[in-house]
Amino acid sequence: MVLTINFERFKANFNELAAIGKKDDGGIYRMAFNADELLARNWLEAKLEAYGIPTRRDAALNIIGRYENEANQDKPAVVIGSHIDTVPNAGALDGALGVLVGLECLLCIKEQSIQTAYPLEVIAFSDEEGRFGGMFGSRAFAGQLNPRIIEESQDLDGIMLSDVLQQLGVDPYQALSASRPKKEIKSYLELHIEQGPVLDAENVSVGIVSDITGLFKWQVRLLGAANHAGTTPMEMRKDAFMGLADFAHEIPRIIDENGGEASRITIGNVALYPGSANTVPGEVDFSIDARDVSLEVMNELKDACRKALSAIARRRQLSFDFTEASMIYPVACDNQMQSHLEEAAQQLEMSYKVMPSGAAHDAQMVAKIAPIAMIFVPSKNGISHSPHEWTDWHHLESGANLALNALVRIAGDR
Ligand SMILES: [Zn+2]
Fold this sequence. Notes:
Layout: H1 7-18, H2 35-50, E1 55-57, E2 63-67, E3 77-83, H3 96-111, E4 120-125, H4 136-141, H5 147-152, H6 161-167, E5 185-193, H7 198-202, E6 206-212, E7 214-223, E8 227-228, H8 240-258, E9 264-266, E10 270-273, E11 279-280, E12 283-292, H9 295-316, E13 319-328, E14 331-332, H10 335-347, E15 352-357, H11 362-366, E16 372-377, H12 393-410
Parallel strand pairs: 3-4, 3-5, 5-16, 6-15
Antiparallel strand pairs: 1-2, 2-4, 6-14, 6-16, 7-12, 7-13, 8-11, 9-12, 10-12
Helix pairs in contact: 1-3, 3-12, 8-9, 10-12
Bound molecules: zinc ion (ZN).
């Protein structure tokens, strides 16, 4: 039997949520725990309650709706969800879509009184987008939070996360207790927009994610000597910027020799010192953002970057140092869940593409405690984090139908 979502209801809910926090410039501003995000939370809770799905907020303020029956209530839950907070000036899909699809799936299953072998939960994780650092809710959920994160997290205006939680009537340290033991979670499914151009370019409705990319961020400093741009001969300079330029040109070679198809290296932030037009730059600070789906490849990329920097520094008479600002491990999606997704797609006669995810998601955190899988839908022109972020309705419907049918399979009804 093939199940289908109530598309009109889904669309109505989608439009209601998309209106919350929308400003005159067309963008949505639901940054974690701001006034509009709190409205969106109330909206979601009211919706779940109105549809008869018992709902609670955990100690990290994740919103969790649960559908269970007497036979399955003591079993681990199959969880579906994402986040409803946004970046500033966001579109309507990133995060919200996954929660809305989760909501619609639970409603369909409840309406048709489908008795799954495992209870189902829909979840909206707190602060995925990073007003206070990112993935706060899913970190807490997966037991990856620590007191330091709670104490030190602040937004760009210097507002402390702990103060905000207190104002909301929550003891910040209690967030640690939102951690769910492995035995309570059977698996986690997340539907998300691709946030890249691949599905749109190939006109495929759904992607089935194989791996979620890992990421390391370095902050690098090349030190030379600042000197007069007119009197310092070219061969006598210690020009830090030339070192950076050499490194930038090494990136394609590093990826060819040490990377794979999913490897990405980006220099996105550069500061030159002293930064005046008539002075040879004596210092350059820059970021490296490098990603791959294999930990082994990530380590090779690190090695290759280090070697290239050290060779360049020697050649240009510079010194260099770097700090690793963050390291997120890559995650493989669960094979069995992936098979459920592929079987459901075939049954729905839907074309799909198995692909890696180049962006980080809550699923990556949840993977610490449970098997995960992800569905992608196309991002028009690959755009996200923008009011222009869009996915055609028929792709949204396909993605939601795939989620529904896969969820029922995963929850062990058939
Ligand atoms: Zn997202």
